[in-house]
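Researcher: Next entry in the queue.
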Amino acid sequence: MSNDVSLDINQKSNPIQTVAPPKEDNNMLRATDKITALYCRLSVEDTKEKDGKDDPSNSIQHQQIMLMEYAKSQHFPNPTFFIDDGYSGVDFSNRPGFQKMLAEIEAGHVEVVITKDLSRLGRNSSLTGLYINYTFPQYGVRYIAINDHFDTIDPNSTDSDMAGIKNWFNEWYSKDTSRKIRAVNKAKGERGERLTTNVPYGYKHDSDDPKKWVIDEEAAQIVKRIFALCMEGKGPSQIAALLEKEKVLNPTAYKQREGRKTPHQTPENEHRWHESTVAYILEYMEYTGCTVNFKTYTNSIWDKKQRENPMENRKVFYNTHPAIISLEVFDKVQEIRQQRHRRTATGKSNMFSGLVFCNDCKQKLYYSTTSYFEKRQDFFICSTHRVNKDKCSGHYIRAVVLEQIVWKHIQEVISVVTRYEAYFRSEMEQKLRMQSEESLRLSQKRLAQAEKRIGELDRLFIRIYEDNVAGRLDDERFAMMSKNYTEEQKDLKAEVMGLQQQIYEQEQQAENIEQFVQRVKRNSALTELTPYALRELVKAVHVDAPDKSSGKRRQKVHIEYDLVGYIPVDELLKAEQA
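Model: Structure for this entry, 578 residues:
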């Protein structure tokens, strides 16, 4: 009978496999019921250990053959495979094969653990040493690393003495590999090469160049619809529910229907859209035709958790592929997303929700309705007044009245812009310049002060650290002061970002007016106010408290337009007529 070992294993279906021992070896199983754990591990980096070339000696199948032959030759009982294919050796907790083997060890079912070498067990010197020197002996488990000639049955051997050095070298190899990969990715990212390999919903690979993205028209229409629905004031949960109701395939089901690879499993309900999926699409800047690199980062090779990188640390490269959504619409949607508003208990909504503010306390006016209200009875009321009537007066306005006032003003703006475009441009440029000069000066002054204070806090932190080390400042006082300095610096950095954005916007006046004019032109044929047009043109509506001094209820509404602020339509018309 041949002694060759043949293993028929489907590695993709199950990362943990058990191999039953051959019948002819039953005589060596009688001594114990415990198993011999044959542990195999392979990561992407481990396949390229020799001058960057593929190393077939590390393949899972090669490891299986080697371990089984060794177990048979040494007459180890009940050989059982535990396999982690595609898992890093740095972390032990996320390896299903290792965790299954560890559970068997802790249950007292394992006699011996065998690996090809020490690096297969792990590339974290501290944890690898902990398992070899503490965990395995604690449960009476013998450990063997074949190629490293390591066997815990003989702790006095010179190979055993070298194990610590080899484990350190294996860890160093992982760190070195990680550094090289990070350096390569950083260089690629800095050059504008796309770092992600996943093609987002709405795009597909170019058949002539797989590195390029082209628009997938069918999916792109759904992406456009999602953005349009958000512009109309609908939130991710409402959009998801609508798409599911209309039987639209979700991204995973759509890609699988098209025969494309996807990391996700086949969904039970192919029309079920999750709120998080819609939110992800609405925040995915690549739909504007740009490449965004370094969106996430990890702290180290030990901590693989993906953390979101702040915008200033990302690299954005524009016009790298066809756009599905304009940058203007994308920016407006991000602004709308920040103005999230609560839904009423009745499920009814209003296009002005999230846009209306009290002109005194500056808080939002909440949309109020009931199931038995007619539309003309729905109203907006100051959120501060509703909670505490003494803090703010009742800024109450009916929704239909608000819509009439705003729609009338928008019609007048459309009329002025379309009839007197050049005049409108020149007057608004002058108005914005006069408004922004003082504001710009104050913003720049405050920015300089904030940046100076951030530098002072850095120096103060170094000083109190030195005082703490020298014993001039006790630990409790140091902890309190460092916490205060850290919080102040965090707040200042956030303020600096806001000021920089304000200054940038103030310096873009001509461009802002141009964008606003183009938006007005797009809506020049409107016959009624739509949620999309409202969100595209209006940034906020500020409502005064009602004035009843004349015996009649009068109320002023101030409309702040996006990009250009307040537009004095009456003054423009009078000046033009004069």
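Model: Residues 1-31 have pLDDT under 50 and may be disordered.
Researcher: Noted, moving on.
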